[in-house]
Amino acid sequence: MPRTLVLVTGGSGFVAGHCILRLLEHGYTVRTTVRSRSREADVRAALEAAGMHRGDALSFVEADLTRDDGWGAAMRGADFVLHVASPVHTDAVADEHAIIGPAREGTLRVLRAATAAGVKRVVLTSAFHAVGYGHGHVDRVFTEDDWSPVDGPGVDAYGRSKILAERAAWDFVRDAGNGMELTTILPIAVMGPVLGRDVRGANQIIQRSLNGQLPGYPNMYVPIVDVRDVAAAHVAAMTAPDAAGQRFLVGSGEPAVAMKQIGATLRHHLCDAAKHVPTRTVPNVVVRLTALFKAEFKPVAADLGYVKRVSNEKSRRVLGLNPRKASEAILGAARSMLTDPAVHTGRSRRH
């Protein structure tokens, strides 16, 4: 069993938590960052509830993406870094620089500290937003060779933060990385078992379906990947010889799922627990009119009726991934939420 030390940034996050579980399961020693050490007890409790093994091999250090303090200590002795931490906002924001700045500058702060500490390889969590948004309704399969235009249709502040942060990372490693290797992971919409009570990202579709907050589904198609496969991709990308200097799209390999089909899957498998899941579709004209007044609906309006096709060939071939079906991610998310009424109803959501 390896005794390698891996630093995971943003340990209180959804993807980061699953990466920690995967690393510990595979025998690694893990250190993770949190913005405040007061979060350690909650994070440990969430990981233990998810079945964490070897919790004594996990340690915490305080470090914030907006400050230099703590990153030297966080990196000390680390062989690899999984830089997962990044601000995630699904609602409209008054100042998009509040997302883009911490994502880009935080990424550079982590890379500078990793270079100074002699880290072998950094695996950076990017997103499909950096590949498959802003192109319009093109009829082709997206691959790792694609980049989203920063100001293309449907690219929001979160998407811009991912594009700019990943581009900055590649530029840094090329110009100042001192031989350190970089790999980026670009998952499509991430769903799957929640950790603790904080529901984020695409899992909010499941939460709002179950608790009746969604009046209906727009005519939108979502390419889905299970968070456990995203974690597996990060861990494999640390050591796969051919992964250095590469981008990897991570997806189920299936066609994007209609949002109404997400609802149908929940109703079919969860029966009474899915009694609030909507059955109707929101007309396109309603979504487009809403997008004129609410910025968070603009990306939805831009992709109405458009089925994005995403290749996962490279992650299968180089990282050895055999991803779960989208339905497993949908039901894994739902069943984990139903075990805690506060998560199911959305009362636990922090703003």
UniProtKB/TrEMBL annotation:
Domain of life: Bacteria
Residues of the NAD-dependent epimerase/dehydratase domain: 6-251
Gene3D superfamilies, sorted: NAD(P)-binding Rossmann-like Domain
Any GO MF annotation of the entry: oxidoreductase activity, acting on the CH-OH group of donors, NAD or NADP as acceptor
Keyword Oxidoreductase: yes
One Pfam family it belongs to: Epimerase
Keyword Oxidoreductase: yes
Keywords annotated in UniProt: Oxidoreductase
Stated family: Belongs to the NAD(P)-dependent epimerase/dehydratase family. Dihydroflavonol-4-reductase subfamily.
Protein name: Nucleoside-diphosphate-sugar epimerase
Organism: Amycolatopsis endophytica
